[in-house]
Amino acid sequence: MADADRMDTPEQAEFRAYCRQWLSANHPGQPPVRIPLGALELSDPKAMAWLQAWQKSAYAAGLVGCDYSTAVGGGGHTNCQTIANQEMQSARTPFLPNIIGLGMAAPTLYIHAQEEVKRALLPGLLSGAEIWCQGFSEPGAGSDLANQQTFAEKRGDSWVINGHKVWTSLAHFADWMILLCRTDKTDKYNGLSYFVVPIQPAVGKGVTVRPLIKLTGETGFNEVIFDDLVIEDKYRLDAVGAGWKVAMTTLAHERGAGLLVTPAAGGMIQENSKSANTSSPAALINLAKSSSRNGKTAADDPLIRDEMVKIAIRQEAFRQNQRRTLVPALTDHPMRIPLQNKLIGTEFNQDLAAITYDIQGPASSLYLNDENAAGGGEWQLAYMNSFGVTIAAGANEVQRNILGERVLGLPKSK
Ligand SMILES: Cc1cc2nc3c(=O)[nH]c(=O)nc-3n(C[C@H](O)[C@H](O)[C@H](O)COP(=O)(O)OP(=O)(O)OC[C@H]3O[C@@H](n4cnc5c(N)ncnc54)[C@H](O)[C@@H]3O)c2cc1C
User: What is the pTM of this model?
Assistant: First the structure.
């Protein structure tokens, strides 16, 4: 987007110029190890360490936690995190690995934690020194999130936690977890409470983390079992029984509508320089030009050209739709566009990834580590991973229900 279209305030324009200048001098360059397509697929400790070093330097330069108060380790700006995110994306820097911490835990802590807890935990979260994970889903509580069975029992000034979480991304690296659990078995919604849990020191002593392998062969998420884990009461966020309300702050951010609630600490940017390639129509065109088809290239095939034009139009429509949020006269419902983001973005990426199979033809069966695979097989990896994100953060079917009920005012689904 051209700077003239951005409508920055003078403070934002100055901050943007600063980010650009800093990023041009401090881009971390090519990683020494393979970085996966997104933070949810991180499993190599060396990749994690390299990305943590990158987050630490971006934080020290003021590009992370920009809109948080200086008292809790933030930059003290207003509406500047989006600028830093845009500039990091333009500079094609790697993703920030503490994605759940920045995108969900920080905004939730910012609103609901005691001041002492915020001051103690937010600096380590923002710098990436301490990695966070999210313990919401359970074997019987995914879309029906309020059906939590993990139980926290009050004993004196502490809580004793027992239960089973699943699909817990990054738990294998995590120091901390945001945890939704039950504190009262008689009331489905008012019987929930919300905690932050220091899980790393408890691994093997009340916490078991078991990796789950995805169809791509990667380990990104885990099962987490709590067995009589004791935590202090100060790690409860908000009142006992207010867990559902606190979880709604987290979910608003997870589903792309959080900025209406509280600032995000670092955005949900997931793309590294390679995945930026696997999620842009421009990269698709390059792939088509280099893929052979009946003595010509795939880019000469009218059916492929048609598919590529359609996806490019959808991307432009998405971009223009976003710009409507800047024009009050076009904002008929405050949640209409923010709540669409996760749905539209994940389905766009899935459809774009599917076209790469048509473009490559039989060569799309080649995978990572095959020297003949286009782009090192990352296109195929991106295709398979594109399914998980339509389920993560609440399945898209459920997201459609939310849009129908809360934005369009349709009757509730039964
Ligand atoms: C890549 C990935 C990362 C994840 N990371 C985390 C994490 O870090 N922490 C965490 O807590 N969870 C995580 N999850 C879990 C995720 O939040 C759940 O998978 C999701 O909420 C769906 O729940 P479920 O898997 O139990 O499916 P179910 O709730 O059993 O749903 C099964 C199917 O039924 C459909 N369905 C269910 N209810 C309705 C309805 N009312 N109307 C229409 N259709 C419906 C769903 O859309 C889905 O297609 C992750 C998931 C993925 C894929």
Answer: 0.93
